[in-house]
Amino acid sequence: MVSEGIRVFQSAAASLWMAVQVLLYSAVWFGALALLIKGRGALTAARRAAREVRLNLELYIIDALFIGPVVALLVKGVRLSVEYSHLELVDQTLWAQAGHGVTLAAVVFAGDFVSYWRHRLEHTRWLWPAHAVHHSDTEMSWLTLSRFHPINRFSTAAVDITGLAMLGFPAWALVANELVRHYYGEFIHADLPFTYGRLGRLFVSPVMHRWHHARDVVGSGSNFATVFSVFDQAFGTYYVPGLCTVPLGVTDEIGPGLMAQLRFPLVSWFRALRGASVTPERRSSPV
Q1: What domain range is 108 assigned to?
Q2: Residue 203's beta-bridge partner residues?
Q3: Other CB atoms closer than 10 Å to residue 130's CB: what's the count?
Q4: What are the average pLDDT values for consecutive 10-residue runs of the chain, which has 287 residues?
Q5: By Cβ atoms counted within 10 A, which residue in 15, 90, 101, 188 is the most buried?
Q6: What angle is formed at CA 100 by the lines to CA 169 and CA 81, rounded to 5 degrees?
Q7: How far, in Å, are 7, 139, 231, 249, 287 from residue 234 at the CA level?
Q8: How many angstroms separate the CA atoms of 5 and 176, rounded?
Q9: Are 4 and 58 spatial neighbours (Cβ–Cβ below 8 Å)?
Q10: Is 115 inside a domain boundary?
Q11: Could you tell me the pTM of the whole model?
Q12: Is residue 98 one of the residues assigned to a domain?
């Protein structure tokens, strides 16, 4: 019993240490980039965002200790279930023949297509309360990517992995897709004035995604892709009128602090089931 407890503790400690290392790498990179782009203004922005960053770090630690390992098991379970049920639409041998380069490009593109529609669903009435936590950051930074409610983390992993597993992508490609989406996701959440110019019509830029996080404005129902902006253009949700200088966040009354963030979707759904309406953001209206 004691030895089992020690193993659990060691596993949790190892998971947390790995998460801290990943966090430190990102902190050094984005800190240096912010100083290069903004100079002293980067320090002012960091002080202004201190409260939001603290909450993001709390959710990051919870995810590393408790949510991440469970999501990893969920991913394996989903993939095995798809294979066992013969739900694959594409034979895995196709990707073996295509080669690693083609497979990597295909999995990231297909992954962004799946996540685009999953993301749009998260902005509908019943899924919005869990996703609102992510949008509640009023001082967006690369750490905003860490602000996800556990329920939203589970649903995201389940939908995205199911879609890609049905397309027959091998395990290494699924991992590679997650890595690309994670680090590029941090980049587009960073407070950077990059629009990419003409390339913005192909890839999602930090400015484009910042408009997605705008509070109660026209653009808040737009820009659902993570990597390729072509999906928003194809389905009429592309919106980049210029640099985004409007307020960020949500109009929902979530409340300050970690516990308020964790309670919000549960309270919202409970009230809805009792007959009170969930009041979604303008961005969360049915699509």
Answers
A1: 51-284
A2: 228
A3: 23
A4: 59 71 90 92 91 94 85 82 84 90 97 97 94 96 96 93 92 91 96 95 97 80 96 96 94 91 95 69 42
A5: 188
A6: 15
A7: 50, 30, 5, 26, 15
A8: 33
A9: no
A10: yes
A11: 0.88
A12: yes
